[in-house]
């Protein structure tokens, strides 16, 4: 009775979803709403002039932590040589502490918290925001952290396919008690562009590979160091080796829903995560704080390079 419904997003031809480079909300009910309150962003169509505030956005970067996304916006402000003091960049979502949002010229930087549900709530409201603001030709990039599989810590992984814990390139959502399955295909050209860009930047070891998205950091990622653990070291390593053989090079917690929602709404998307450790070697993150900070800047440096190139600044 719970057979999954396979939506027709699983083929390779997504042309029907990307007719023009505008943001497609896939919800007929929205048209009949007089006002749309983006509750978790503390924004709305009646309280804010969204086209004026956001109409010029071309690049949206999302990442887990509010502080990291603020420093990314400051970094971009400086890299793009925008006027004004980058200390003045304010949190557009200051009226809520669920998410933080910063704008630097055509770049929007938003936090999404940890895990699929937190990411999906933010994305529903972000995609509606881009739609209400009548943005065009927008690309979305997740810049994040991850656990590496067979890679030296500090390696940047550009995601080829976002896969679930069974190594399938799909995202399952329960809707009205039924499982809906959506494809997690990412933009191939954008991934290749990022990989090519990485070669132009010193000290930025980068690979392309599959990214596994889980619903837990501990048992869900095969860690032996959580409050609960029901498996042996051998079983853990067997699973991680299977993941490696399926092309998985890093593990994080948001990529599948990010890829699925962007694809459905006609937004070109990429995922760029740095690895903080090699999961074949251990589970605890014992890298010195200073080094962790340096690692976390790597996806930012790569994405900033891509943005500057696309804007013709380099
Ligand atoms: C990477 O890091 C977080 C867990 O530490 C999670 O948000 C993710 O995807
Ligand atoms: N984020 C994750 O989800 N897993 C890791 O191992 C490190 C960061």
TrEMBL record:
GO BP of this protein: nucleotide catabolic process; uridine catabolic process
Domain of life: Eukaryota
Pathway: Pyrimidine metabolism; UMP biosynthesis via salvage pathway; uracil from uridine (phosphorylase route): step 1/1
Lineage, highest ranks first: Eukaryota, Metazoa, Chordata, Craniata, Vertebrata
Leading EC class: transferase
Positions with a binding annotation for substrate: 221, 223
Family that this chain belongs to: Belongs to the PNP/UDP phosphorylase family.
Protein name (database record): Uridine phosphorylase
Keyword Chaperone: no
